[in-house]
Structures are given as structure tokens and as C-alpha cells.
């Protein structure tokens, strides 16, 4: 079989993930320095921190956050700067 370069073939559409964005990510944009909110832990503390960090990078990359475990199933998230 001969391999050849072809042009003019359209790219496939990107698939959109089938989930709704969490309302918590909108809170990140509204936080002022010193403000905080509670975020529920769904599977583990480390995976929840990772979710929050990824959302921060996407929705408001210029801010800094701190986290603290509160109880067994919540993490408090503060805006530092």
C-alpha cells in the first residue's frame, strides 16, 4: 500500500464533554482576597484539590488559592492573591 499526502479533507468536529460546568467555578471569579467557600469532596481530598486547581487554571489563572479540610466531606477554599 502506498502512503500519500492528501489535502482538502475536513477536520472532524471536536467532541464536547457531556457535563455541566460546576457553579463553584463561577465563584472563583467573584472571590476577593480573603473570601472563601466550601467545596464538597466527591471521591478523595487529593482528587478534589486537583479538580479545583485545574478549574482555577482554566477560569481564572491569575489568582492564588489555599485549601483546608473541614470535616469529613468538605474543603474550604480561600483566595490568597
Descriptive report:
- The structure is a single chain.
- The protein has 81 residues and is of the alpha+beta class.
- Helices cover 28% and strands 21% of the residues.
- The chain has one domain (23-79).
- The protein has helices at residues 23-30, 45-59; strands at 36-40, 65-70, 74-79.
- The protein has a 3-stranded antiparallel β-sheet with strand order 1-3-2, with helices on one face.
- Helix 1 crosses helix 2.
- The longest helix has 15 residues, at 45-59.
- The protein starts with 22 loop residues before the first helix and ends with a strand.
- The mean pLDDT is 85.
Considering the chains and any ligands shown, give keywords for the structure.
81 residues; single chain; alpha+beta; elongated
In terms of DSSP E residues, the strand content is: 15-25%
- How far is it from the N-terminal to the C-terminal residue, by CA? 59 Å
The count of domains is: 1
Fraction in helix: 25-40%
Query: Could you state the order of secondary-structure elements as H and E?
Result: HEHEE
Radius of gyration: 19 Å
How many β strands by DSSP? 3
Shape: elongated
> How many strands, which pairing sense, and closed or not: the largest β-sheet?
3 strands, antiparallel
Which parts are unreliable, with pLDDT below 50 for 5 consecutive residues or more? none
Q: Mean of residue pLDDT? A: 85
Give the structural class.
Answer: alpha+beta
Strand order of the largest sheet: 1-3-2
Instruction: Give me the number of helical elements.
Output: 2
Amino acid at each position: 500500500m502506498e502512503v500519500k499526502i492528501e489535502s482538502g479533507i475536513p477536520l472532524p468536529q471536536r467532541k464536547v464533554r457531556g457535563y455541566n460546568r460546576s457553579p463553584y467555578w463561577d465563584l472563583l471569579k467573584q472571590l476577593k482576597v480573603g473570601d472563601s467557600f466550601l467545596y464538597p469532596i466527591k471521591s478523595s481530598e487529593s482528587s478534589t484539590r486537583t479538580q479545583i486547581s485545574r478549574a482555577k487554571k482554566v477560569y481564572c489563572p491569575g489568582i492564588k488559592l489555599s485549601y483546608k479540610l473541614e470535616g469529613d466531606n468538605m474543603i474550604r477554599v480561600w483566595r490568597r492573591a
